[in-house]
Design goal:
The protein is mainly beta and about 40 residues long. Helices cover about 0% and strands about 25% of the residues. It has a two-stranded antiparallel ribbon with strand order 1-2.
Length: about 40
């Protein structure tokens, strides 16, 4: 997709939603340090 990725020492909380290229299904994960957070895709 052309994104540049770099390593950093610290980052805030994160929630990620990706499309699994094999199944086409949405997959999500929330930063476990913040259990009240949410990653949701429809």
């Amino acid at each position: 997709m052309g994104y540049r990725v770099r390593s950093v020492q610290q980052m805030g909380d994160i929630a990620v939603i990706v499309v699994n290229p094999k199944t086409g299904m949405l997959e999500s994960v929330n930063d476990s340090r913040y259990p009240a957070g949410e990653a949701a895709g429809y």
